[in-house]
Structure formats: C-alpha cells, structure tokens
C-alpha cells in the first residue's frame, strides 16, 4: 500500500474558531492566577514561614513533571467519541474546580489535619489537575492549525491566559474594595474576599472548558493522517518505556531551549512565591510573621492587582508578538521580551511607592507573553506530529526542573543569605531572566534565522 503521498494542508481556521479551541485557557489561567496571587498568602495565614513557602510550592513542578508527559503520551493514543485531547482537559477542569473550592477552606477541616497540611495538599491537587487540563490544550493547537497559523494560535492562547489572569488576579481586590467583602479575618482564617474569589474561579473554569469541548471538533485519526506525511514505521515500546525513549531522542532545538526555560522559569517561580512577602516587607514595612494586619492585607491585594497588570500587558503583547517575530525572528523577539522582564524584576528593589510597581509589571508582562508562546511556536515545528502530545509534555521538564531547584534551595537562600528579606529573591529572579535572554541567542537548529 502506498504511504508516501504528500501530506494535505490543514484547512485554515477562522479567528473565532481559534478562539473557541483555546477558550478553556481563560478559565485555567483564572484559577492559576488565583493560586499564584494568593497561595503564599493562604499558606502564611495557616502558619507557614517565609523561608518554607518555596517548599510548599514544590507541589506545582513535581506534579507537572510527573503528570504532563503521561497525559501527553496517553492523549496521543486516545481516540474515542469524546475526542483526543478533550477528555483530559475536561477531567482536569473538574478536579481543579474542586481544589479551588476546598483550598481556602482548609481551616474548616482542622479537626482532621492541621490546616497547613490540608492547604498544601489542596495546592498539590490543584497543580496536578491544572497540569492535566493544560498540556492537551498546547497539543490541540498544533493538532488543529496549519503551520502558518501556529504562532497566532499560541498567541491567542497567551491572550486568553492574560485575560483570565487579569480577572483572577483582580477579583479579591474587587470583592473587597467595590463589593464590600471583608479583606481581613481573624488570625489563622482566610478573608472572605479571597474565599469568594476561589468559588468564582471554580465556576468560570468549568464554564470555559465546556465552551471549548462543545464548540471544537477534533480531527479523527483517518483525517489527521491526511495532513501528515507518512512517517517510518518503527517498533515502539509502551507506556513509561516509550516516554523515556522519546526523552532520550528529543530534537536538538528542544535541548537548546532547555537552558532558556531553566533561567526563565527559575525567575518566574521566585516571583510567584516571594512577591507578596517581598512587597509586604520591603515597601509596606510589614513586620516578619504579621499575616493578619490591614497592611499585610493591602500588600496581598495590591500584589493581585500587579499580577493582573503584567498579565494584561502579556495579553495585549501576545497579539503583536507574531508580527515582531516575522519582522525579526522568534529568537530575537523572545530575547528582547526576557530582557524587558529582567529589567522589570530588578526595578522592584529600587521602588518605595507601591503605585510605581505598575511600571515594573510592564516589563514582566512582555516576558510572560513571550514565555507562553514563543518557545512552543519554535518547538512545534521541530517535533513529529504523531508525538506532539508526549513531546509537549516532556518539554515541561524544562519548566519543572528549575522550579524544583528553586523550591528546594530558594527558601534556604532567603533565610541563610538574605536573612529573611524576600526582596533579594526578586533581584535574583531579574538576573536569571536576563541570563535567559542571552541564552536564547545561542539556539541553533530551528527552522528560522
């Protein structure tokens, strides 16, 4: 039987169709933003010390390292009446919504275990579930879009990520400042404005995932085969052995992107973990151990606003990033963006007025917008279509490893070398972001200049 016919070109999708296939990312990032902006605050409320926060946050990269390659592998192999990728992100959304509801209420379950243990457990469940939902969305873009639309497809995801993150990051502030919901609570209790925000996040996550499930049709195996040139038949192992084999055979471009990802995600992890205590101590002059004062609440709410700002910048930037990449190259566009992010992080140290932190977030937003799209656009052209899911999952190793390294040593560094002053963790993050920008320029093996 003849197998070497030229592959057909996938039909171009309309902007509305590209929006629909990524709409669930709005809800995923809504929940992720609530976690990023409030998890440290919640864990501190339940008794976590600043230097231990990074250890609790290890739940995210550890679960991602385990879950994403497995989900990627099995989503490549899954074909049923619900689709190829859709069953996975639907299940992930349901589990994430449950964790969003339970995490801020960990104190209510104190009769079973200490709240800090329950809170950390909910953080781990939330991270695992988000990873189940997130990885198939990356592969879905590559499955559905022709090469000419992939940069725009990943940028649309980044736009929706930014829009969801703005909403999730700002919601606690909106509840307290505009709807009159209390922003403070008794020691050991999570304020109601945070609790209600997590409830809203659970509902929005489910609704947007259902939107994608109901509006997007996946190509069945026989149609997908038409869009890809026949690949040599090889005898493959199953399950974990296959994943390990694919890891050892990863493309050159993927290996070279690994260093860039290490620097970028080390910096991001520091920012997410330590921004709230850094700004509370360095700018609001909150004393160590104070988690129930109005000043601490104000700092936490303002961090939510700031995180919304950088995500808003990333959403807008994502729409123009493909044009910048076409005029220069994907490498140049990504390097410029990471350099802007490094400058934004370093500037936080020199700011005393919290209002001026908005300017720092602009640079961080440029970096975040590029981190969420450019590496995937570069990578998607370098990996075989039949292994798109597993390689997108394996690529997550280069995201999780720097976070694990940071999680193990970050808190120790803050305690031993920075004497509990979290602002210096933010400075180190800025340095690493700049190193990421430099390392982008040394990538070889991609299909562009």
TrEMBL record:
Give the UniProt entry's GO cellular component terms: membrane
Would the keyword Membrane turn up in this protein's UniProt record?
yes
This protein is called: Maltose/moltooligosaccharide transporter
Domain of life, per the record? Bacteria
The Major facilitator superfamily (MFS) profile domain sits at 253-449
Per UniProt, what is the membrane topology? Answer: Multi-pass membrane protein
Residue stretches spanning the membrane:
18-35, 55-75, 87-106, 112-133, 154-175, 195-214, 257-279, 299-320, 332-351, 357-378, 390-410, 422-443
Q: Which organism is it from?
A: Pedobacter cryoconitis
Q: Which GO terms describe its molecular function?
A: transmembrane transporter activity
Query: Keywords of this protein's UniProt record, alphabetized?
Result: Membrane, Transmembrane, Transmembrane helix, Transport
Localization, UniProt: Membrane
